[in-house]
Amino acid sequence: MISWMRQRWEQHFSGRVSNLTYTSAGRGRRSQGWSAPSSGPNNTLTGNLGTLINRSRAAIRNDPWAASGLEKLVANIVGTGIKPKSEATNDAFRKNLQALFLDWSDESDADGQLDFYGQQSLAVRSMLEAGECFARLRPRKPSDGLSVPLQIQLLEAEFVPWDYNDDLKRGHKIRAGIEFNAVGKRAAYWMHRQHPSDYTTLDTADLRRIPADQVLHLYEPLRPGQLRGQPLLTQVLLRMFHLDKFDDATLLRQEIANLFTGFITKPAPDGEKVDPLTGRPIVYDLQGVPMVAMEPGTMQELSPGEEITFNTPPGAASNYPDFIRQQLMAVAAGTGLPYEILSGDMKGVSDRALRVVLNEFRRRIQQIQHNQLVFQFCRPVWNRWLEMAVLSGAINAPRFHQRKADYRRVKWIPQGWPYMHPVQDMQAQNLAVRSGFKSRSEVVSEQGYDSEQIDDEIAADNRRADELSLQYESDGRQSSQPSNNDKDASQDEQETPEQ
């Protein structure tokens, strides 16, 4: 009895398991060629990261679609720069801090080629191209003459070897070139002194240990526990490679086919061999190879008995544009760009559909701005810069070490998006402010500007207008007073009944 119940239970349990099996997890005929090996978040990536980076950079150097997509992503993520707006409560301190950061932003680059916002663009470009970018915070001496003794040095992904793994003392471990302490916190980065692809000798003794608090790692983790970044073009590299070869082969076929305008046939001559195209004796080079010249559009006068057949070169397939469009749509999906932005093809796209596409795209851009560029790069730069400014005496911050959080508060403002419909969008913003759904400062921030700076500029314009006895309709102080046009209109209305 017990064995029978056990048998029924096993049958029932196995039936339930078989019924719960996912179709995609089956092992039938349709899934025989499906290779899906199990792997952790780092083994597969670091094992192929060098090849991915090299192919990604080769595609960006040579493929116009890859280069265009990268440039447009960088332009939308950074634009003219994501700029800080201090939220310190002391007005005088806040203005001095903003002015000091503006001066330092021209000195931030350790290589002296870019300002801070140019470094933002370069860092994002490196992150998209190679999957990641490293930045070293380099303290400087007071004698260097900087407004704040700090500079930033951007380093490519190869500076930290992804295949360097080791176990150290006190429970420290090195994984993918990154050292972790016993509790799993990043303790240091092991870096080459020079770019490993710029010299031929690679020696692990060349590696230097850089403390983690001096290094910023800019990348987008796609799996929990992922240590290194993945290039943006990873999913579409092979597709773009073959698409570029196909497009180039189609162009070359057309070019070669159009070289042949016509073919002349005539009876075989007796004796000396002649060129069938020119009718003249064949000329040989030093190696005895016949030399036959041909130019586009060449025609030759015919002799008696000769005939000519005109060439009809094959044209591109009728579905060629649709095929290229479909492939570019896949490339756009793999890179996170709308097809219309990647290709510039706005055919058949309505204004309302374009708004939906751009809103979706902007949401993704804002995600990268906040999660990667601001959190991983801008925020730690601001904190270290503020500490160096206080320690060097460039700015006075009483009780800084007791009130770090108050002094560090900052809002990073990206470049604003242009209005889709300027008049309607501005009216909607005005209505939102008047209804209390949004502050005026928030509207200004969405356009990439600082509300305090705009207020100062408006106040300066008003003072200058008052000194020169000027009146403009843009002056908000005059909005409650009727304009000259309104006065003339009201006078006309009063005079009309009398007439």
What does this structure look like?
The strands form five sheets. The protein has a five-stranded antiparallel beta sheet with strand order 4-5-6-7-8, with no helix packed on it. A three-stranded antiparallel beta sheet has the order 3-2-9. The protein has helices spanning 2-19, 43-62, 64-77, 91-105, 116-130, 237-257, 320-335, 339-343, 351-391, 404-408, 422-434, 440-446, 451-467, 484-498, and strands at residues 83-86, 132-139, 150-155, 166-167, 173-175, 178-180, 186-191, 208-211, 215-219, 262-265, 283-284, 290-291, 307-310, 410-413. It folds into two domains: 40-258 and 322-415, no CATH class; 259-312, no CATH class. The longest helix has 41 residues, at 351-391. 44% of the residues lie in helices and 11% in strands. Helix 2 crosses helix 3 (64-77) and helix 3 (64-77) crosses helix 5. With 499 residues, the protein is an alpha+beta fold. Strand 6 (178-180) and strand 7 form a beta hairpin.
Short recap of the structure:
This protein is α+β, with helices and mostly antiparallel strands and 499 residues long. It has 14 helices and 14 strands.
Descriptors for this entry?
alpha+beta; 44% helix; three-stranded antiparallel β-sheet; extended; 499 residues; disordered C terminus; 2 domains; five-stranded antiparallel β-sheet
